[in-house]
Write a structure and sequence with these properties.
Number of strands: 17
Radius of gyration: 18 Å
Mean pLDDT: 89
Number of helices: 3
Strand content: 35-45%
Largest sheet: 10 strands, mixed
């Protein structure tokens, strides 16, 4: 893994260019997943590990002591989940992106999943405030027998008087390779437009909040997509939901709403369904609040 980390840093820039760096290697020992190496620098930290049930899955929480991403900030997160290991990675609170004059804030994530490993990446929502620009690139290299679940909720910040802030741009790109072959390319661009609210004449229509879920797992099939759609379709009567079966194999979910609460509930329901069916786990309760 050391060679991988050095190669990644060399490709994306020297250590001094990162506002925060986090590297985490997970392996399985005596029935439990543990961190065999961890490194952090700058404005990224992790809490001590937690085990939420009997399965041995380890849960780590990423924190940003600085509280927010600012213009020109670049963050690097690298995670290596060895064969048979199981990691749930979440955040302490929402990721806030404030005004980014001159240069956008960026986060780069590099994830590697070994044979029969599992990664659930379940961060709190991303909140983009007025005149904020943010880019996120996630690259995944996984074994065909690994399981990956990635969730994301994007929400605009609000002013004290309730007026919707107008962020400039959010770009999120996910590149997922299986056995070294690009299998899933998920590219999201939200650009409300200068002077226009996010709910104006854009592809989101009157909606202001977006939820996204990517699942890459050999067990995904059309029947599962239909079941998820049936379970989620009525949860937000004022929103929109779409689920697509991927060639990965896997599925992609997009949901639109006017608030984050129904999106969080929909993604949690989907994640809990998969956790129960595939891994015999109870509904997830991270107890953050």
């Amino acid at each position: 893994m050391t060679e991988t980390v050095l190669a990644t840093v060399g490709r994306l820039g020297g250590p001094g260019e990162w506002a925060g760096r986090l590297s985490l290697d997970i392996d399985r020992r005596a029935g439990c997943s543990i961190a065999v190496r961890q490194f952090h620098d700058g404005a990224l930290r992790i809490f001590r590990p937690h085990y939420l049930d009997h399965t041995g899955q380890v849960c780590y929480t990423v924190i940003n002591p600085g509280g927010a991403y600012l213009g020109g900030d670049k963050y690097l997160i690298e995670v290596d989940v060895a064969g048979g290991a199981d990691l749930l990675l979440t955040t302490q609170a929402a990721t806030k992106v404030y005004r980014t004059p001159g240069s956008r804030a960026e986060q780069h994530q590099h994830l590697r999943l070994g044979a029969a490993s599992r990664l659930e990446l379940l961060p709190d929502p991303l909140i983009a405030y007025r005149q904020a620009s943010y880019g996120q690139v996630t690259t995944v290299d996984m074994d065909p027998t690994a399981s990956l679940v990635m969730a994301e909720v994007v929400t605009p910040g609000w002013s004290p008087d309730g007026e919707l802030f107008r962020y400039d741009e959010i770009r999120m790109r996910n590149e997922i390779s299986i056995d070294g072959r690009l299998a899933v390319l998920d590219n999201l661009l939200i650009r409300p437009g200068s002077g226009s609210p996010v709910g104006g004449m854009s592809f989101m229509g009157r909606y202001t909040h977006l939820g996204s879920l990517l699942v890459v797992d050999a067990r995904v099939d059309a029947a599962l997509v239909d079941e998820l759609h049936g379970a989620l379709a009525g949860m937000d009567p004022h929103g929109q939901l779409g689920i697509t079966l991927l060639d990965g194999p896997g599925l992609a979910l997009r949901a639109l709403s006017v608030s984050s609460e129904p999106l969080n509930a929909m993604l949690a329901t989907a994640v809990d369904l998969l956790r129960g069916r595939w891994f015999g786990q109870e509904p997830l309760n991270l107890r953050k609040y």
